[in-house]
Amino acid sequence: MSASSVKRYRRDSEKSDAEExxxxxxxxxxxxxxxxxxxxxxxxxxxxxxxxxxxxKSSSENEHExxxxxxxxxxxxxxxxxxxxxxxxxxxxxKKISAVEKQLKxxxxxxxxxxxxxxxxxVAELAKGIQYEDPIKTSWTPxxxxxxxxxxxxxxxxxxxxxxxxxxxxPPPLLTFREMxxxxxxxxxxxxxxxxxxxxxxxxxIPAVLAGRDLIGIAFTGSGKTLxxxxxxxxxxLEQELRLPFIKREGPYGLIICxxxxxAKQTHDIIQYYCRHxxxxxxxxxxxxxxxxxxxxxxxxxxxxxxxxxxxATPGRLMDMLDKKLVNLDVCRYLCMDEADRMIDMGFEExxxxxxxxxxxxxxxxxxxxxxxxxxxxxxxxxxxxxxTINVGRAGAASMNVTQDVxxxxxxxxxxxxxxxxxxxxxxxxxxxxxxxxxDAIHEYLLLKGVEAVAIHGGKDxxxxxxxxxxxxxxxxxxxxxxxxxxxxxxxxxxxHVINYDMPDDIxxxxxxxxxxxxxxxxxxxxxxxxxxxxxxxLLDLKHLLIExxxxxxxxxxxxxxxxxxxxxxxxxCSYCGGLGHRITECxxxxxxxxxxxxxxxxxxxxxxxxxxx
Length: 614
Fold this sequence. Notes:
ATP-binding, Rossmann fold, zinc, RNA helicase activity, hydrolase activity, alpha/beta
């Protein structure tokens, strides 16, 4: 290699080294400038991560905001980095949506997605787009001196009695039956049953119904909900009969639907009691028809032929009679659904819609229950016209008159331990079990031990069920063993003790079960057996129900906890099923319903009433 080429090579290598050094060179930035850049970077991160009001703004507004941010951070060069970092954190926390707000938004979306989109109305009404603007008008008005009093007086009464109302122009509460303008015969009948003054639900509910308003009535078990719909319907039918007597095959004017045969029979007997007193006082006869399954339909048809004023029915028998044109709802203007949440719940919407489609005009609709979750309330309101919602205590809350005793009992020791529990109070005692075979096993065991006991469940014929309930009510028998068929609405005034042989799958059923005692202001005891076979979500709901009712929480329940317990203070628990121990985001009942719907996709029941005959 020549000397010139060696020199050229050396120059090239020196040049490349210099270029390399130039590439690695980082220009010096003063400390003040570096702080400013870091702060700008932090400010932009906060802007990007926080869900601020930047969404939906124009690009020019965003640019302007960015410039102002840069300027503001630029101006703060004289504040220490630590102070600026603290300030940034505060801004981020202020802009960030809290976990509670996120939870509520998520629950709102879920509730909206599961809400029934189709209104709870008859097919003809939906097809023609019929919508009623105003409630039915009646001839009843509150006393003048009550109307003359200010709204503040009514609010004070509601506050004192813990009555919560929603709706427009809610009628004033009335503190005596006399103020409700009930006939003397009805007042005498009430006095005979030792009912001297109205309960809170009656104070507000009866005036609202007499005024013709659609109503959702929610109150704890044993609070006197039945009289809220029974007394007004008797008054309305009496008024119609006096104006123009009912002719043959006319009616019913009022329809009351109950979820179980026993509850329908009990409601029918209550109506007949007051109608009999009116007739004895010289008033016209009010004919009441009972339409329930398991008994011959001939008795019901005979009364309908004469012209029926009131019909009390279970959904199955009513739909059958409507389908066979044995009865019509042409003149029916009053509909009440007792324990309404059970009838509007999953699987019953279409039955209710079918019944609604037989109505020929506007009706006054009343819905009553001790447990009515938000989902059911929202759906039910689609069937009502400017409804009044009356709430005495939380929907789904247990009666405060019942002492709840929860005990851990092993599965194999339950039957034997029952005898010990029966000693806690004098008879009569009510025992609930989830399964029919458990009811039969308990009944047989008690009979072997010499206990006077009877049993009812869906597998027994109606005559036997009726005899069992009546013998227990008349105190001929000491113990009634039953499935949940006896848990809703049935009134046994003398029962001091309810025993839950097992915990029901649904906390609503538990509330209804223990509500068979502690009725009409009297005290009662509820003993519940639980063990490791009981689902954890039900136990969590039970724990929070006990806390709400200020009852003793046993240690094995107190130790249970879940992720959603931190949201326990948000409100009334799950808006789908009403359980206090979980939120709608973790509702097992909703998950079960969704799984069932998913498995039924693509299937069709060609044997259903509404399907074509293939």
